[in-house]
Amino acid sequence: MNLELSLHETRVIGCLIEKEITTPEQYPLSLNALTNACNQKSNRDPVLNLDEVAVQQLIDGLVKKRLVSEQSGYGSRVPKFQHLFCNTNFGTLKFSPQELAIVCELFLRGPQTPGELRSRASRMCRFGDVSEVEAALEQLAARADGPFVQRLAREPGKRESRYAHLFSGELGAADANDAPGRASDEAQGANIAETRLERLERRLGDLEIEVDRLKRRLDGAGD
Predict the structure, then answer these.
(1) What pLDDT, on a 0 to 100 scale, did the predictor assign at position 202?
(2) How far is Cα 98 from Cα 132, in angstroms, rounded to an integer?
């Protein structure tokens, strides 16, 4: 797979796929509607704050990559946009409804467990149980034209491993085993915070001594 998309590009494509499935009567999307979808506070992680200029720049880049097209003739003079990412006559990438719902959800919310994907992607495609999600993930990971997803190392205390999409490039060892890396980062952050606290406590102690000394001087001058 030769496609590498940025976080913001996957957000734009994910929003277009989502709205095509969940609100087809409002699809394609205007620039304003797409910007609002990208910045939506629900069903998004991370929450973004893009303006229309930034979204238009993303659209222009995706148009050059033939992943988005501008449409007209929908009863409005406002330009509207639709994705060409998959399941179109303009490309070879084809997904089943379940695969598409999973990829879209990973674009919108990042790495997730099969259980999370079943719950969140069900608004776009029905999954009978978690095993159907796991089967679709296995297909996405094993496809000859992929792989499109990768399983991450299971986090401590978690029953399920998370899966991440690979449309932003292959995951390195640190990403594929992100739980140990994150634990190390958290430990390092805790050590830094502890060191800063110790420095502050020492500084506070020095200041208290200095204030005491100044008080004694003032008391002596008053006598």
Answers:
(1) 67
(2) 9
User: Could you tell me the residue range of the domain that residue 66 belongs to?
Assistant: 1-93
* Residue percentage of the chain with pLDDT more than 90: 67
State how many domains the chain has.
Answer: 3
Q: State CA 120 to chain mean position distance.
A: 14
- Cβ atoms within 10 Å, residue 138: 13
For tokens 């608004």, name the residue. Answer: 123
Cα atoms in the 13 Å half-sphere on the side-chain side of 169: 8
Instruction: Say how many C-beta atoms besides its own lie within 10 A of residue 160's C-beta.
Output: 16
Nearest to 102 by CA among 130, 133, 129, 131: 133
Instruction: Find the range with the poorest average confidence among 67-81, 95-109, 179-193, 199-213.
Output: 179-193
| First CA to last CA distance, the chain | 85
**Mean pLDDT, range 40-63, rounded to an integer:** 97
Question: What sections of the chain are H helices per DSSP?
Answer: 7-22, 31-38, 52-64, 97-109, 114-121, 130-142, 173-176, 178-222
pLDDT over threshold 90, residue 23: yes
- How far out from the chain centre does Cα 80 lie? 24
pTM over 0.85: no
Q: Same structural domain for residues 102 and 166? A: yes
Amino acid at position 123, single letter: R
> Both 75 and 101 in a single domain?
no
What tokens were used for 96?
A: 């089943």
CB–CB of 123/116 below 8 Å? Answer: no
